[in-house]
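A quick word before the example. In earlier lectures we treated sequence and structure as two separate objects. From today on, think of them as two lines of the same record. Here is SNF2 N-terminal domain-containing protein written that way.
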Amino acid sequence: MPWIRVKKEKDWFALSGELKLDDGLVLSMERLIDLLETARGRFVQLGDGQFLALTRVFRRRLEELSAYSKKSGKSRRFHPLAALSLETLAGEVGGFRGDKHWKAHLRQFKDASVLMPEIPSTLKRDLRDYQAEGFVWLARLSHWGVGACLADDMGLGKTIQALAVMLTRAANGPSLVVAPTSVCMNWETEAHHFAPSLNIVTSGSYPRGGGEQIDPLPVSGRKYSAERASAPGGVISEWRRRSVSDQPQGRWRWPEPYRCRLRHPYGSLVESGR
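And the structure line, produced from the sequence above:
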């Protein structure tokens, strides 16, 4: 039976391991996956006329591992969202060891899956049933520390749901809202009206080459049309969450300076709808 080790590698996890055969031959998991790509059925050719017979279950697990990860030197890297696909594999191999980050990630998921957040009393509007359901879903993902995409038609309350989550997690740090210039005013209006306890700071364009320091207030709104036009010289620190509102045609990407500064948010929310 193989053994597997998982450890944190930057924002992802890295998996390594090996399979020991009866004749003393040792295959790394990366080598085994490479051989699997050219194999037919459950038999993997090792060379010199030797073949390795895989059970159908183990072959399926290796295929899943290959699909959810990518090669990185002598190991394979996989996104934290693919962690659940490895839980089953962990229970089927001869040995599995995950570092403290791996264990914390799974613990956060289990906690989030049973979390029943209350709608904040500071939200000055009653949520409809589908909005309340969306709020619970968003709050659970935020608690887990992963991203979410809330896609719905205009006017169905995406902003309200996002504001509810921001209120729930306001004590953990500020939120950053990135939106088109035409949408920022709507964010401000709804935030002041439905979430008056939040402090709103709107930041737009600034001279090229200049610097700007934003204090860690609960919510800051930025216009990404200006961000693409000029890169900031200042540093945005301590951000825990970000919300990207109404991405045009779903093709907009973080400007390079902001991808650097915001690569460790507590959770990201993308809203899209027409």
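Notice the following. The two ends are 52 Å apart (CA to CA). We will return to this example when we discuss secondary structure assignment.
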